Amino acid sequence: MIAYPRTALADELVHQLQGKTAFGDAQNGLFLAAPRRTGKTTFLRGDLCPALEKAGVVVVYVDLWAEATRDPGVLIADAIGRALQPHLGVIARAAKKTGLNKVSLAGWLDVDTSRIGKLDGLTLVDALRALHETADKPVALVIDEAQHALTSEAGEAAMTALKSARDQLNRPGVVNLMLVMSGSDRDKLLRLVNTNGSPFYGSQIKTMPALGQDFMAHIVQLIEAQRPELAPVDQATLQAAFEGFGSRPQFFMEALGQVLSPLAALTGRFEPAMLQAAAQRQQDDEGQMESDYLGLKPLEQAVLWRMLEQGPRFRPYDAEALRFYREKTGRDKAVTPPQAQNALESLRERTPALVWKSARGEYAVEDAAMHRWYETRAAAGTWPPLSRQGNLLPDTE
């Protein structure tokens, strides 16, 4: 993967997180949404985290999807513990030399030196305060795929604790704890901010800018430098191809490598081949979603259809939803809430899962790309997908 630093964007976000801009609320939490594989994690790890460290901030990064089988709350606690450990270690070694079993950190917190780096009995609030005071620097906690925290009670509790830590460590004009939460699904990330019961109620979700013309100009420059016989490269066509790939650099660069390979036996210009590759990728992605949909049982299809149609307004068991399920499946009898619940659980248990569930019992489509697929087909009048036998078969269960 070709490195493309987004230094200007990272520096601007650091200023916002530090509260140095006249407008904005990033110092109270920066929430970034971007579709999967569009470079969000690369930006966080390769640009934003280094920029924060350059500004004198201790950075704690955790990706809640890296170990999806572990509880998100535990992953957050472990990340803070690992960041705290080296700072405690210096003090602990000095304490052990004097024969002390415990040491006072910053004059307020006693930590058992045999439990350094572990959070047994130490709250997230106290751990973050300890990290800030022992490092004598502001702390930034960067949580990638933060919406995954809502899938467990411990994860929800961790989010509430982080909000408390922010309120305790920060004061007007002084930002000691910066929180960055990213997510690949805006609707799920909204659940952290959009209701009175949300831990960060009132904060705003920002859409992370996609890679644009400057990125493509960088790619064109590299191509012309390495393959001067291809100059001048048609940047506009490559930009259209990149957008056809959903602005996903990984897929774009893979296709570019294939069409520029000496083994490709390509005749003529390579730019049209990139447009064809983008169209094929889109067709393959949509074909997979259609195959997944048509492979479902009628009630599962109806439930998923309702979720795609309603988005964040989806309520699985209200009267309108149950009437919708009955109509779309052609049942003679009403669909009951337990039957709808069984369909939802079946959708969650598929590999890969088609449905996401929060610890509060909220449901959403797992892959946000499926919403875009649905909206495109609905606008074109080609929804729902039809099997060879026609649309949803009557369901007699």
What does this structure look like?
It is a single chain. The chain has 14 helices and 9 strands. With 397 residues, the chain is of the alpha/beta class. It folds into 3 domains: 201 residues, Rossmann fold (3-Layer(aba) Sandwich), CATH 3.40.50.300; 78 residues, no CATH class; 85 residues. The chain is flat, with a radius of gyration of 25 Å. It starts with 6 loop residues before the first helix and ends in a 17-residue tail after the last helix. GO terms for molecular function: ATP binding. Keywords: ATP-binding, Nucleotide-binding. It comes from Hydrogenophaga aromaticivorans. This is ATP-binding protein.
Based on DSSP secondary structure assignment, what is the total number of beta strands? Answer: 9
Output the CATH class name of the largest domain: Alpha Beta
Low-confidence segments: none
Q: How far is the first residue's CA from the last residue's CA? A: 50 Å
Q: Tell me the CATH topology of the largest domain.
A: Rossmann fold
Rg computed from alpha carbons, rounded to a whole number of angstroms: 25 Å
Helix content: 40-55%
Strand order of the largest sheet: 2-5-6-1-7
Mass-distribution shape: flat
Oligomeric state: single chain
Largest sheet: 5 strands, parallel
Look at the structure and give the mean pLDDT.
88
Organism: Hydrogenophaga aromaticivorans
Keywords: ATP-binding, Nucleotide-binding
Protein name: ATP-binding protein
GO molecular function, one term: ATP binding
